[in-house]
Amino acid sequence: MDMPEEKSGGDTVTARPRRRQARGERRIAQLLEAAATVFCTTGYTAASTSSIAREAGVSPGTLYQFFPNKEAIAVELGDQLLKRWHATYGEALTPAHLELPLEDLLDAVLDPLIQFNFENPAFGVLMHGSDIPGHISLEHDALHSAALTRIEEILAGYLPDAPRADTARTARMVFTVFKGGLDLILAAEPAEREAYIAELKTVLRRYLDPLVGCL
Amino acid sequence: MDMPEEKSGGDTVTARPRRRQARGERRIAQLLEAAATVFCTTGYTAASTSSIAREAGVSPGTLYQFFPNKEAIAVELGDQLLKRWHATYGEALTPAHLELPLEDLLDAVLDPLIQFNFENPAFGVLMHGSDIPGHISLEHDALHSAALTRIEEILAGYLPDAPRADTARTARMVFTVFKGGLDLILAAEPAEREAYIAELKTVLRRYLDPLVGCL
Amino acid sequence: MDMPEEKSGGDTVTARPRRRQARGERRIAQLLEAAATVFCTTGYTAASTSSIAREAGVSPGTLYQFFPNKEAIAVELGDQLLKRWHATYGEALTPAHLELPLEDLLDAVLDPLIQFNFENPAFGVLMHGSDIPGHISLEHDALHSAALTRIEEILAGYLPDAPRADTARTARMVFTVFKGGLDLILAAEPAEREAYIAELKTVLRRYLDPLVGCL
Amino acid sequence: MDMPEEKSGGDTVTARPRRRQARGERRIAQLLEAAATVFCTTGYTAASTSSIAREAGVSPGTLYQFFPNKEAIAVELGDQLLKRWHATYGEALTPAHLELPLEDLLDAVLDPLIQFNFENPAFGVLMHGSDIPGHISLEHDALHSAALTRIEEILAGYLPDAPRADTARTARMVFTVFKGGLDLILAAEPAEREAYIAELKTVLRRYLDPLVGCL
DNA sequence: GATGAATGAGGATTCATTCAT
DNA sequence: TATGAATGAATCCTCATTCAT
Question: Rounded to whole angstroms, how far apart are CA atoms D39 and D23?
């Protein structure tokens, strides 16, 4: 009756809409960008929350107002990159592509992916996970399994009759080869870049050609 | 045989320096073994010198009597593993192998390598380097370039007329694929292991077959 | 009635300031209730202003609009509890009670007090002060000295001829025993509660009986 | 054979005797003393490990070489004080004391205890626990239950036929009264001290007299 | 050589409090 | 007013490295 502000808006019913101010959204974007930079510079393991905050030009406390810990930053960054990927290039692969010869499919899939990784190098860092062998940490799980699932889908489209286990194994191998090749491409001197891109496509084409051929 | 520098400094008596040396060698071996264990468990970045010392059953001070810092431990461990590799399987690849069909060559090269990696998982950890993208740290450089050089030699044996740059690129790609595949193999459940080994060989065979064929 | 200072500042219209005041009172009550809850859950020292604000469903900024710091919250909460005590049970002790035998007086004093503490557990928390020995922090001073004064008055009623210093000492001892006993009672399992209440009364009765008897 | 140092001493069998150097022992004593000081000054909750280290004149790292966290310091300090108590006054209470009249027993028990608390004020701080109501933290548990058990034993000596539950309750009440009285004594001005000591004894004597009398 | 002690900077995280909107 | 953002000092704790014995 005398607290009119609590009547306004239909949000009294829901539990505290936790409405975020525009400034906050900007800070989050800033922090994620800073995190991407730091992850790329020092790697995930060695990245410190302070360095991320410093890179973002804010105090440590501010970072913790938006993220509970380092892992959450990585997770959020991964999510954001995934979204950005879908928004930018995600539609590039239509069902029609699956009708193309393998060589063209690889172009259609890899070129945007490589392009995206050049524009967002943190993507690759997060895909790799930490340096503990055989251990994909939770942080990067989403990215990792999203990629894997996508590859499996494409493969299953080509090879609907292959046993699941085989497709899964092939998908893993393809993903692994891709990650490795991507590293090579990103690390290569500009003059060598195209050659490495071609080489990665060659590996994958030769690997997959017989599979697709038996279609 | 390969430690002539340790003969220098002829102390007074005969037996003493030998003894001391032997103890030192033992300590170093102890420490390197501990380092291998710790690197495999926690990864290189997260490994602490104290944990290595503890694992080796010595005090931190002792560790620093033999190694100036953490990186030196990794370097030395890499060297040792390389030596061990040469001592154990190094001779397996005779010039005669180069006459074999590719499939057999891959068996001859990869099987011992995979076997060795199962026995010395630290090998793989060191080959990978830290999680900084495009950055092979000094620690693992020796391992890395030794492997690369070896692959280049083999490739050059098969393709003596190919341009250097091409061979180098192919070698890098082969090495990268191998590292990725090895991870998959080591991480796979025992039941899946053989299948992943076969898959890795398949990738490499299909990749290299056309190159070798044009011989 | 007891907030005349809030009438000052006669703004333009009539209804506005009243409204604002009422809302403020509500917020303060909200915050104090939240503070009581948090103090009881985590103790005063570990209670954070943010947690109090969160518990009250407001932002930290809002809290600081009504209280300059954490201590002020405790002080205000103490005042409020004291007022509530007076309003609820304060009149229970009429001069007539002082004519009663000690046993009945103890019942008359302790039962409502214990009851009140069950209903307002923050009362006890504030009475105790922090865990710094020999140090009743300012926050809880009001509560503390109000209680002490009250006990002294009652004792003085019984023992008008006793030296001040003695009465003061006895009052302190009574208060201390009461606080300790209250803790025991509040911490006891329900089945044991009555027994602990009886025990506390026993201690005090036996302690005070000789004093009162010499009346 | 060439590591003679490992043959010396029969300690090769046991798992690393973790032999502590004299300096270390001294540091531990220093740190515990510093902790006692800080606990008494600021209370347990507000005491920080850095302040303890600073008080001891060492770096934070040094503290953590001997104690894994703040709680461990409190536990160790409690143990040490308990040992010191037993070593200094522990033998004061012989079975013969139980034959004494209550008044003398109280003198025999309380005087050394009070004396010890004057000499070791941290004892009281640890006995009290944190400021969370109804919550004796693990840190002080040992001290707390040791005291309680002792009181129960004495009471059981006097009242062998009383039900366990009653003795336990009485013991708790006695302990609580003692703790409260002790605080009063320690906080009192020197001139008042003796009077408060007498007062505490009076409370306890009057409380326990009837129990003992009914023997 | 070996040990355990010592260091101090750096890391993650919290929190009382202030500020801009 | 109310909000959420911002701060920065302080907390606990770790670690590579050095030192005294």
Answer: 24
> Does C26 contact A3 at a Cβ distance shorter than 8 Å?
yes
With contact defined as 3+ CB pairs under 8 Å, the chains touching C are: A, D
- Chain B, nearest residue to A207 by Cα: B203
The gap between B69 CA and F20 C1' (Å) is 21
Tell me what the mean pLDDT of segment A13-34 comes to.
Answer: 77
Q: In one letter, which amino acid is B5?
A: E
Q: Strand E: which of residues 9-48 in chain B lie with Cβ below 7 A?
A: 20-21, 23-24, 27
Q: Which of residues 77-96 of D touch strand E (CB under 7 A)?
A: none
Q: What is the pLDDT of residue D136?
A: 63
Domains annotated on chain C, with CATH: 4-67 (1.10.10.60), 83-213 (1.10.357)
Task: Give C74's Cβ-side CA count (13 Å radius).
Answer: 28
Q: Band of the pLDDT at C94, cuts 50, 70, 90?
A: confident
Please report, for residues A70, A76, B2, the alpha-carbon distance to residue A67 in angstroms, rounded to integers and kept in the order given: 7, 9, 54
Residue B125 contacts residue B40 (beta carbons within 8 Å): yes
Closest CA to B96 of B155, B149, B157: B157
In terms of Cα–Cα distance, which of A199, A117, A79, A208 is closest to A154? A208
The tokens for B38 are 């710790």
Residue D188 in this model has a pLDDT that exceeds 80: yes
The two structure tokens encoding residue A195: 């050659």
Which range is least confidently modeled, B52-61, B179-188, D32-41, D91-100?
Answer: D91-100
Least reliable range by pLDDT among A49-63, A95-109, C69-83, D69-83? A95-109
Place of tokens 């040792």: B80
| Residue A118: count of CB within 10 angstroms of its CB | 14
First-to-final CA distance of chain D:
73
Report the SS3 class of residue D129: coil
The two tokens of residue A80 are 């954001």
In this structure, the number of other CB atoms found within 10 A of the CB of residue A117 comes to 21
CA distance C87 to chain D (A): 25
Predicted structure pTM score: 0.85
Work out the minimum CA distance from C26 to partner chain A, whole angstroms.
10
Query: Is there contact between C65 and strand F, defined as CB under 7 Å from any strand atom?
Result: yes
Q: Where are the alpha helices (DSSP H) in chain D?
A: 22-42, 49-56, 60-66, 70-88, 102-119, 121-128, 138-158, 164-187, 190-213
Per the CB < 8 Å rule, is B22 touching D16?
no
State yes or no: pLDDT of A50 exceeds 70. yes
Nearest Cα of chain C lies from the Cα of D162 at a distance, in angstroms, of 15
Q: Which chains touch B (3 or more CB pairs under 8 A)?
A: A, D
**Cβ of D144 < 7 Å from strand E?**
no
Question: What is chain C's mean pLDDT, rounded?
Answer: 85
Rounded Cα distance between C180 and D80, Å, is: 26
Q: Is the dihedral of CA B199, B200, B201, B203 positive or negative?
A: positive
